[in-house]
Amino acid sequence: MLDMKKLLLGAWEVAEVIIVSVASIFIIYGFIAKPYVVEGKSMEPNFHNGNYLVIVEITYRFRNPERGEVIVFINPNNEAEFYIKRVIGLPGETVSGKDGVVMVNGQKLDESYLPAGLKYNGQYSFKLQSDQYFVMGDNRPQSYDSRSWGPLKRDKIVGEVRLRFWPLNELATY
Fold this sequence. Notes:
Elements (H helix, E strand, L loop, with lengths): L1 H31 E5 L14 E5 L2 H4 L7 E5 L7 E8 L4 E5 L2 E4 L2 E2 L14 E5 L4 E5 L9 H4 L2 E2 L3 E10 L5 E2 L1
């Protein structure tokens, strides 16, 4: 009888570990962080096709996105797709650009994260509302972003890129 008690106690302990583990994974994946795989060239040279990232979703429940942060969001034109871009303009700002120069509220934006000598054409100007952000890919000539489809609504933002974990030789935190 004693051996059966030990067996049941041991089985219960294993079940507890499994239940806590599954619950923890569900909570982390559902509310805190998720993996994301970069598809395409719009964020080169900083992020490449096939990079594996960790997106922290909980950050923006406590604060708003900041200029320069890299975010993942729901494609405003197709809710089944997710994009990765950099935050350029914040709510209430005016973002404009011409011949590769980005201006925020009339001041040239310092974009040290872009490669020197990056050339791209186009002209745009957007006045952002209180719930809108302006986002752009780092590979400006090959990025489908706010210049094409307009400002991004706050409720489309999924989370902030915090970690690149694959490939291992490109491991980095943000």
